[in-house]
UniProtKB/TrEMBL annotation:
Top-rank taxon, per record: Bacteria
Species of provenance: Fodinibius salipaludis
Membrane topology: Multi-pass membrane protein
Alphabetized InterPro entries for the sequence: Methylamine_util_MauE
Main location: membrane
GO CC aspect terms: membrane
Entry's transmembrane regions: 12-30, 50-72, 79-100, 120-140
UniProt subcellular location: Membrane
Domain Methylamine utilisation protein MauE: 8-139
Keywords, sorted A to Z: Membrane, Transmembrane, Transmembrane helix
Name of the molecule in the record: Methylamine utilisation protein MauE domain-containing protein
Amino acid sequence: MNKSYLSKAITVIRLLLGILFLISGIGKLISGSDARYLVELLATEFYWLIEYATAIVIATSIIELVLAVFLIWNKFLKWALSGTLAMLISFSSVLSYFYFQGMSVENCGCFGAFGFASGLEFTLLRNLILIALIIIAYLLSTSKPKISDKASI
C-alpha cells in the first residue's frame, strides 16, 4: 500500500475514534446518569459495584478523554489504540452480558448528555465496527511500506 494512503487511513481512523471518545467522555462528565444506571444494573450481580458507581463513571470518562487527546494529537498511537481497544472490549463485554441475560436496556449511556437512545444490539454492532477499525489502524501503523512502494514515493 502506498505510504500516503496508509497515513491517510490511519489519520481518518484515529481522528474518528478520538472525536467519538472525546464526545463520550465530555458527555458522561456532563450527565452520567445512564452510564451510572448500567453500573448499578451490573451491581445486581456484583454488589460491591454499587458503592463505586459514580467513581467508575467519572474514571471511565477521564480515561476516554486522555485516550481521545492522544488519538487526536497522534501521540503514543499504539498505546492509545491498545487502551481504546481494551475499553471497547470491556464495554462490549458488559453490554453482551446484559444482552445474553435478556435484559432490556433502553440507553447504554455511552455518550452521556450527547447520547441518543440506542439499544443493546445497535451499541454492540457499533462497538464491533469500532473494534475492527482499531485493529485495522494498529495493523496499518505497524506495517512497513514495501520496497516497490518506497520507489514510487
